[in-house]
Structure formats: C-alpha cells, structure tokens
Amino acid sequence: xxxxxxxxxxxxxxxxxxxxxxxxxxxxxxxxxxxxxxxxxxxxxxxxxxxxxxxxxxxxxxxxxxxxxxxxxxxxxxxxxxxxxxxxxxxxxxxxxxxxxxxxxxxxxxxxxxxxxxxxxxxxxxxxxxxxxxxxxxxxxxxxxxxxxxxxxxxxxxxxxxxxxxxxxxxxxxxxxxxxxxxxxxxxxxxxxxxxxxxxxxxxxxxxxxxxxxxxxxxxxxxxxxxxxxxxxxxxxxxxxxxxxxxxxxxxxxxxxxxxxxxxxxxxxxxxxxxxxxxxxxxxxxxxxxxxxxxxxxxxxxxxxxxxxxxxxxxxxxxxxxxxxxxxxxxxxxxxxxxxxxxxxxxxxxxxxxxxxxxxxxxxxxxxxxxxxxxxxxxxxxxxxxxxxxxxxxxxxxxxxxxxxxxxxxxxxxxxxxxxxxxxxxxxxxxxxxxxxxxxxxxxxxxxxxxxxxxxxxxxxxxxxxxxxxxxxxxxxxxxxxxxxxxxxxxxxxxxxxxxxxxxxxxxxxxxxxxxxxxxxxxxxxxxxxxxxxxxxxxxxxxxxxxxxxxxxxxxxxxxxxxxxxxxxxxxxxxxxxxxxxxxxxxxxxxxxxxxxxxxxxxxxxxxxxxxxxxxxxxxxxxxxxxxxxxxxxxxxxxxxxxxxxxxxxxxxxxxxxxxxxxxxxxxxxxxxxxxxxxxxxxxxxxxxxxxxxxxxxxxxxxxxxxxxxxxxxxxxxxxxxxxxxxxxxxxxxxxxxxxxxxxxxxxxxxxxxxxxxxxxxxxxxxxxxxxxxxxxxxxxxxxxxxx
Length: 788
Known about the structure:
788 residues; alpha/beta; Rossmann fold; Aspartate Aminotransferase, domain 1; 7-stranded parallel beta sheet; 7-stranded mixed beta sheet; 19% strand; transferase; magnesium ion binding
C-alpha cells in the first residue's frame, strides 16, 4: 500500500551503491528538517553491525540543537556487519531456526507501513520522515529479495544518493534507471562534491534533461583519531550543510524542494477527478450517471492484485474505516483489470522484458521479416501451446478485437472458397454462435454477434445465435439449465457432480446429448429451408460467455455445435481472448471439449496485461495488413509471461487448489474421467462456493480457474438490473474483513474492493498468481456483505 499523508512528507533514501554516504546525507536531511523546527522521523528498517555503529544511533547523536524534534528508530537489528539477508540467516542459524524466523517480504513491508502510519497518526502540523535503505538499490533485504522489489509495494517517493567516486557516474545512472523500471518516482539526487572526479557536474546536466534535481554537498571531514575531536568536526560539518547558511551546497534547499514535490503531488491528485470529468470518455460507463468528483476512482499506482487509490476527494470516510490522515488506500482489483492481469500489476520481470525489447528493437515492420521474440512466441503457441496438434500458423496483432477480425476474415474466406459463394452471397454470409456472445467493439467483430448492449446504430447482425444451456451451482448442487427451445419447457437438470458436467466425452451418449443434437440439427434445417443467408463459420467463446453475463455454457452443447458445424463443412473459430491461457484453469478449451478449432484467438492473459497483444492461430494464414504486426515489445513480454505461467501450472499453489476441489467436492470418480476431473478446479475455495450457493439472495454461483460469478435472485431484468451493484456496494469501503486485521493488502493496511457487475451478475477474478491468503481475505469480505 502506497502511503501519502497531508501532514507527513515521507521519502525513501536509496543508495546508488554501498558506501556512498547515504547515512551521512540522510542525517543531514534529518538535521535540516529539525533546524527548520519541523518534527522529523527517521526509520532504518534493517541495521547490521554493533549498536554503537548503527545508523539510527548516528542520527540521534548528530540531531543538533533541535534534537528533541527527531525520532530515530530501527525495526530489525542484527549484530553481524554483513548484508541483511546474510545477517538474518546467520542469526537464525546461531539461535536455531525455531527461535529466529526470517521475515517474509510481506511481513517486512507491513512492519514498515505500520510504523509509518503510527508516526502519521495525530499529526496536526507538517512533519518529515526519511526511510533509509541498506546498501545499493539491488542489495538484498532480509528475505534475499532485492531492495527495489521488496520496498516497491510501499511506493514511497525516492531520494537517490549518488556515487561521487571513480565510476560513480555509471552506478548513479544505472541505479536511477533500475528505480524507473520498477515505477519509483525519483524526486531528487544528492551526492558529495568530490573536486577530483567532479561527478556532480556531469550528473547535473544529465539529469536536467530528465527533470530531476541534483544537489552536490561538501564531503565530510576526515575521521579524527580522538573521538571527542571527531565529534566536534562532524558536528560542525552537519551544522554547515543543514543550515540556511549552507548556500547552494546545503540541504535546506533540498528539503524545501521535497516539500514542494509533496504538495504538488497532492494537488495533482485532488484536481484529477474534475479534469477527468471535463475531458475523458470512459469505456462502458453511463456518463450521465457520473456527475460528482467523488465517483471518480483516482489510481495513483498499482502493485500485485491491488490498486492504490486517492481518497482525498471523496466525502468524509468514517475514522474506523481508514486512518484519518491517509490520502491513499489499497483497493483489490477484483476484475483483474478487465480480465488482463495474469501475474499482477507492475510485475518487474514483465517490465524488464518490455524494456529489453524496446531497447533492442522498438517497433520493426514485419512483412517478409522475422525477429526472435515473434518467432519464439509463434513457435511455442503453434507447437506447444493452445495450437498444439492442429494449428500451423500464427498471426500476431495488437488486441482481441483485431485478432477476431482477422479470425473472421480467415474463416469466411475459407468458407467462401469451399462452398463457392457468389459475390452477392459473400456480402451476406453470416456466422453461427450463441446468444450473449461478445467478440469486441470493432465493426466486424460486432456484426458477428446478436443485437445487444454492445452493438451500435450501424450494427448489422449477420448470422444465427442459439440460446445456450448454462451450468451453475445452487444449494450446493451443480445443475444444467436447459432453455425451453431445447426441452420445450425450461428444465433444470441436477444431481450430477460438477466434474461429470465437464466430462464431455462421457456425456456424448446421454439423453441430453440426443436432445441437443436434435435441436441443433432441426434448427439448422429450418434455417436452410427458410432461405436464411449462408453461414461461413461457427464462432464460439468456449466455456464462458464473458461480457454476455459470465454465463458458463454447458460444454456438451458447445461440443455438439462443433460437431454439427464440422459435418456441414463450416470452419470453427474459438474466441479465447478471455477464457484461454489458464484463465479458467485450462491451457485451452479444446482438450476438455474434445474438439479443436480451425482458428483461435488469444490475448489479455497473453502479456500479463502489461501491453496489448493478440495472436490468431490457424491452419493457414491470409493476407492481412496491420502496422503493429508482431510488435517486438509485446512478443517479448508474452514470452516472459508464458514462461512464468508454465511454472505456475505445475507449482504448489495450483496443485493445492486442484486437490481442494477434488477432495472438497464429495464426488465419486467415474471410470475413465480422471483426466477431465482434474481439469475442473478453481482458485476460489469449494467451501466458499458451496456457502454462496445456499444463500436465498443468490440464484446461482459458478467458478472455474480464477473466475467466480454469481447471479442475484431478482426479477431477471438482466443488464437492465442494478441488483448486483446495489448488493455489493459496501465492498467499496475500506475496512478489515470480519473485524480482523488485514495483511493480504500491500503494507497490511485496510483495503476496499474495486468490482464490476454485469446487470444482475457479479463476478470476481484473480490473477493467476494471487496468493491464497488474498483470495481467502476477499472471500471473507464478500461473505461479510452477502451474509447479512
């Protein structure tokens, strides 16, 4: 959780390297703040070495005439003067691992955040705080994680202490770029004014182009052998650099500049809602209903599964909900930012992958060319990914809607040649699909859907859409909801376990399969006899209709639609933009359905949500123009994402979730269904899903992989309903679930939940690596609201 307070200006001090004078310059900043009669807090999260040499003790010793205004503190102290990770492990080994536990990164950042909040509590006047790190930016913390990554959830504005020694220009710039790659805001650089190497002269001009202020400070005097003389000399040094008469080489100007940056940040955040309302069109928002600045969600940063949002523009928040002086709060991103997040926000490995490709290629045109990121991505998706066993080509574009346009062009051109459509028929050719389908907002993708909330005035629906049977859980029992068009009267078939419903192969010879076949065949025959325009493809969102209301379609019906299309020679297109690449716990829907497509489209999870990218897989390609085809940055990020997803797929977290669903479902195995049974699982707990399904206010609940969706029992107004939004509105309040302390948010503070609804349907979605502790915390919050 990023921290921002009106009356406490907090800055984190990073060093470009070890032994660059970080503690000396931080002590000077502390003293300069105190000299202006400002209360100042100094925090050294980790200290190694003897107590008399500890940095917090040094700060206290040289606090100056106004030392009573200085509070210096250390959270973790170790005796050995070595790197923090080694000191912690040595202490654990010396005392026995049962007595000393090395804190996790989450515990470490939570302790820092808790201390900062404690210092901020009750302040009525401006105060300053400096959080000094240990070593260089990549030095490890207690767990072994580098400081850059360990401190990142706190997102504190940064002062970088530059290196004034030989080679210091390079180390300072390298440290600065490493901070930028992780999103840090570097507001000032301070270093010693070494008159021989004169690094500050080069760095001043270099960073002026980047809008970063550089301040050079006189170096400290040589250390005296006599402790009393050394104290006098050091005290005189601090007095000079930390007072107004320090001139251009003093630190008073630095603290005034940092104050102005702090005030400017708050002003920027406060004005963003009004400026946004005046200048921005949002997607999928009824702008007439958003009239107040308090309705604008101002996202200051994001990390992992959480946004950090500004609250200073909202109506007063009850003191019990969040610290009264805090201007930021954590907010769980419960839609995975419209289904894109695979590894959480601002994942450093993905940011580095993007930088790696941007630095090597930028964007290069692709016709009759190749480059390593695109070729590697195409080969892995075709040969070992969702295209394994059927695809031979990959066309790489920039987003799911464009990818679907390409897929439709491929499929319809194949059908046109296969069936010999006349030019007039080619203009009228349509698709088969399911009611509630959504394939994107470009014109061609819209025309492949039935008229609905996502279409526009010049929408020209081309095709026929079957009403799909759906799957759900109610009162602890899985069921298939069969529409009246299939069963003549609407029918709910229940009693079979969820794993049986998704065992498509075992259901092909059932009475329901026979009913489905008869319905599909008779419908297509009637359409043909009735003079309907020709069909050129079957277009499906496998397993779940996302934007159409998170409808979990009976997979047996989709399989039989595929069989019927194939029997008639129609190409089959899978729109796996949302559902593919493990979003539903499956690499691809093909193996579960027992049928592969002729064309499939993948996006969203593909790049972990960092950059737009889409891949259309097919048995053959076609001529299609696209300026950002095989965008090298996106391809490199996609490869990095897929590398990490492959490790997740066989890791302990997913295996534990799979085991929970197999053990918690109370299901009896059917012969030959073991493989399919193992494929049906969720990161959401089976006990929680069962509890939700038994509530009177819930019509049905369903989950697969990262997705949890439930339909509110109301008047079935669908998209016109506000029932889901109204039911869950208090999730937007920052409060600990069930009155307990919350440690699942970065920094361990209270968190709200940012959620989206689809009329009478509410859905929640995690990243693919969301910790189970976070998911359990969200479950508790949702239950606390619904259980009322």
